[in-house]
Amino acid sequence: MSALRKEVLDIDYGQESIEYSPKKKRIKRNKKNNNVIESFKNFSMIAITFALGILIVYNYAVITDKQMELNSINQEIATLNDDIDSYNIALESIKNTNSIEELAKAYLGMNYPTRKQTVFVDFTYGNSETTEDETKAALKGNGNMLVGIIDKVVSFIQ
Q1: For 24-70, what is each residue's pLDDT tens digit?
Q2: Do the Cβ atoms of 111 and 105 come closer than 8 Å?
Q3: What is the pTM of this model?
Q4: CA angle in degrees (0–180, nearest 5) for 156-147-114
Q5: How far is CA 49 from CA 40, 59, 123, in A?
Q6: Which of these, 148, 95, 75, lies nearest to 117 by C-alpha position?
Q7: How far apart are CA 26 and CA 15, in angstroms?
Q8: Which 8-state DSSP code applies to residue 5?
Q9: Helix orientation angle between 97-106 and 31-95, rounded to the nearest 10 degrees
């Protein structure tokens, strides 16, 4: 025997050694029930994950639809602004006084009035010293004025 190694000697004295151990209660589990619960948990987790994935995809579809509507509305606004600009340009050319004068002369036959067509009206108020000759001349002027208005209406109709 070496100094490093110590041998254990089993000496049997004729007595059997009985080890004392407290009784352990065994917990009986139903493995079949445990498997059903575990499979239900797994299935529910997969179903919840699938539902959340579908919900996320649906929300992205809604967002994309709204974005497309927004883009079409912006495009429509741009076209309407272009139309407004073209109408403003056309309006400016129509408002030009030179073009109005040319249209009046060419298509309507309008010219500047001559001295014979010009009528001067005196608006002096409160002059009580009028003579009979002036009143007769005024009545004749009103008659001429009425004839001039009728002539203008007839020429306008033709």
Answers
A1: 666 665 566 778 888 999 999 999 999 999 999 999 999 999 999 99
A2: yes
A3: 0.40
A4: 70
A5: 14, 15, 95
A6: 148
A7: 31
A8: -
A9: 60
